[in-house]
Every structure is written in C-alpha cells, then in structure tokens.
Amino acid sequence: MTSPDKRSLGTGNRQLATGNAMRSRRSAIASLSSGFGSVALSGMLHREVLAGKKPPAVAKNVILCYMSGGVSHIDSFDPKPRLNKEHGKPMPMKVERTQFNNNGQIFGSPFSFKEYGESGIPVSNIFTNIAEHVDDMAIIRSMTTSVNEHAQGNFMAHTGFPFLGHPSAGAWISYGLGSANKNLPTYVVLQSGGAVPAHGGVGLFSNGFLPAQHQASIMKADKPDPVSNIKPSQAKALQRSRLDFVNQIDKKFSASLGGNDKIDAAIENYETAFRMQASVPDVCDISGETEATRKMYGIGDADKQMSAFGQQALLARRLVEKGVRFVELSCLTEGIGAGGAANPWDQHGKLEDGHRSMAHQVDQPIAALMTDLKARGLWDETLIVFTGEFGRTPFSQGSDGRDHNPFGFSVWLAGGGIKGGTIYGQTDEYGYHAVEKPTTFFDLWATVLHQLGINHNDLTYRYAGRDVRLTDVHGHVLHDVIA
Questions:
Q1: Whether the Cβ atoms of residue 262 and residue 293 lie closer than 8 Å to each other
Q2: Number of domains composing the chain
Q3: Which of 43, 170, 252, 468 could, after both became Cys, cross-link 326 (CB 3.0–4.6 A)?
Q4: What's the pTM?
Q5: Contact 123, 137 (CB under 8 A)
Q6: Would you call 483 helix, strand, or coil by DSSP?
C-alpha cells in the first residue's frame, strides 16, 4: 500500500511521485541553501501535474468571516414575508427533529428588510453597512448541511467532514498554493477580545494528515504579542547558529530514512517561526494606519466588541496585502442573548437581542474591509466568504428563540471574481428547506478553489490508501456566481 506521505493531484493511479523519484527530488531540494525543501517540493510537483489542467486563477487569497453559532438566514439575507403574516400559527408541514425539540409556532422576523443597490436585493436592517455592498455579493440562499450540532457543523464547514482529523480548507489551500510570503504563515486564524475557537476547538484549523507547516497560526489581533513566544530570548545571530545546527542534524536524519515529510515539515516550521519574529510584530502593528481608517473599521468605538472585531478585519487586510493565503476572522461573545463564547450567534432564546448585538459587532468592520480592499486594489484578488455552520428554524424555540436548521440557509461570497448582485438558489416560503439549487459546503469550497486556480478534483493527498480531497467525492463549482 502506498505510504500516506505521497502527494497526488488526481485519483486512481495519478500519483505525483513514488519511491526513488520522490526521494531524489526531495534530496535535491533539501540541499538548497534556503532550507525550505518540503514547501518547495510541494509547489514544484503541484505545478508539474496541474500545468494545463487547472482553471485560470482569479483570486490569490481568501478571508473567511466565520459566524459561529448559526446566523438566522430568515433574519438576515433571506426574507420570508409569509412568516410575519402567519406568526403564531402552527407550521403547515412536517417539522423535523431539532437540537432541543422545544418547538413552538411560526416565528415572524423581528427585523425589517430593505432593497439595496442596483440589484435590489433585500437585506435585514441588522446589516445596513454590509448591505451597501450587495451589488458586489453573491448570496447563496440554498446552502444545506448534513449535521445539526455545533461541533459537527463547524468541522463540516471547515473540513468537509463532521469529525476531527481532516485538514481544514485553509490548510488545503496552503498545501495547494504554497507560500506567497516566506516570512509569514500561509494560514492565519485571527482572534481578539477574548474570542475562543468555535465548538470543535483548534482542530477546526488543523492540517490533519497534511504536512504540519499547513496548520493555522493563531494570532491575537488586539494583544501586544499577537503570537505566543514570538519575541526572541536570544540574540538573532546565536539563534540562527543554533537553528542551522539543529536543521543540519534533522536533514541528515531525514536523509537516513530516505526522506521523511514529518521531519521536513518540522524544519520548515522552525524556519518560519524564526522569520516570523520580525515580520509578525510589523504586520500586526496598526499604529501607522490613519485615524480615518481605524474609525472606518470601528476601532476605538465605545462598543468594545465591535472595536476588537474591527482590529481583526483590519489585520486581515494587512495580512492578505502581505501575501497570506487564508485568513479567518472569529466572532466574539456578546452580552444580551449571546449564545456562548464558542457559538455567539446561537440564539435559542432572545433572538432579537442576540442577533442585533452580534450583527452590530461585525457589520461595520466587514463592510469597512470590503471598502478598504477595493480602495487598495486588492478586491479582485481577495475572495471573502461569509458563513456559519447552519441556519435557524422558521418556528420558535420557546417564546423568542430559534433552533438549528441544516435544511436551508444563507451564505455569501464577494470579491475574487464573484458575480455581484447575485442570488443563487432558494428556500421555500417559510425558509425551512432549500427547494431550488440545493448547495453543500463541498460546492462552496469547490467554487473557492476554482477561483484560486485549483480544480477541486485534482487537489488530493494520498492517505490511508486513498486519494483524499477537501470536497471528498462530492462538490460542483457554482458557475452561476462567478463573473
């Protein structure tokens, strides 16, 4: 059986290299003075196999705005007037099992909707700033998922599988594209204001079975030291000397084994960490940004949660400007109606208060990010993805909350060659089930990879005897949302 460290970009027998060919190529690259053999090898082999097969790359980077907890689509981007007309009445269709099965009657949206832009797409009044960019957005109203619980939903959204152990989309994109800036990690997860990972923990950002250099680096956007232990404790020359010595030993050990990706990945991680000591504090220092820019993002606002999220959004722009491939923004817990530290959009009660406060946290900063990317010429090369793990039910849980709804909900894409002012798919008149163009996270990530110039069918890794990919055996590119 083929060992799990052999890369492939296809299925069946289309393996990139095996045996002595792989070892000789790895050895040749490892002998280069840069010391980045594993990443260089990956990039070289990917280019060789994908030449002439891949779609044209439009985007270079991805910013994932992850709304953990489950944003209510029927209170944000998918208005359903029928809910308000029939508020308080029983659902006229079968109600599926929910997370808590404390199901009430039809629950009309407490928010009003208004049409925006030339496209006239309606958006809830909790997202008035993002709504101003609706002509640049493709809203997918028919997203579905196969799971109904937060941890499984978060893993599904991040990795395509509802359990621990698989690489996240950020890790796959890091693996497929390689680094555009050797001084920074290719995959960064931003946190601020006490934000914690969604249910599932740091495993959501894992490299899984891919080489270790593709896992996420977590940065605290509002901390003096955004990455733990980033400040050197020794003089740079002494550090460099010791690192060279360790690398030399590791390379000899790897060579004695005929090449070992885990050792090569460790060497690369040491090198990246060494370079990050200078580059991370520089890119995270926003003191040079104008007051107008900081205010646009909401930084320094009386709403401390919005200010903290605004720092993430601004830092996301600075990171993609420096060539970081994948950046994820993390929501912060709000006060009234908050769903909890790990899933703040999870309003099983007090939905109006909770969704209003959560939207206030992210609305201005995300809109500012979109404006800033356009102003700096980064819009076409940066793809923004806005999603949570599922939607919420059209009927109440208790008196004023909504339970989880995996059968139909909304996400949106913008920038990176996306066709703005677009609505893709539909849910039924109650916003309960997707009834037109049902879509999955496999389709979403297939589309993202397509915009990055990667055919999702070809980005695979040989593991446990099969060619595994982000989209598993599923996924279709959503060509209707591409410009």
A1: no
A2: 1
A3: 170
A4: 0.84
A5: no
A6: coil
Quick check: is 158 in a domain?
A: yes
* Exposed/middle/buried for residue 359 (C-beta within 10 Å: 0-12, 13-18, 19+): buried
Is residue 18, in this structure, part of any structural domain at all?
A: no
Confidence (pLDDT) at 241: 63
Residue 187 falls inside a structural domain: yes
Give the structural domain span for 340.
57-237+278-481
Tokens of 468: 């595994």
CA dihedral 88, 77, 365, 192 (to 10 degrees): 60
In a domain, 269, yes or no: no
User: Identity (one letter) of the amino acid at 195?
Assistant: A
Tens of pLDDT along 136-156? 999 999 999 999 999 999 999
User: Which residue in 153, 148, 173, 165 sits closest to 203, CA to CA?
Assistant: 165
Dist. CA 243–CA 466, nearest whole Å: 36
- Greater confidence (91 vs 262) lies with 91
Structure tokens at 17: 């290299």
Q: Pairing state of beta strands 187-191 and 326-330?
A: parallel
Query: Which amino acid is located at 247 in the chain?
Result: N
Q: How many CA atoms lie within 13 A of 225 on its CB side?
A: 7
CA end-to-end span of the chain: 43
Task: Give CA separation, 478 vs 138, 384, 424, 441, in Å.
Answer: 11, 15, 9, 11
Tokens of 56: 């044209």
Pairing of strands 326-330, 404-405: unpaired
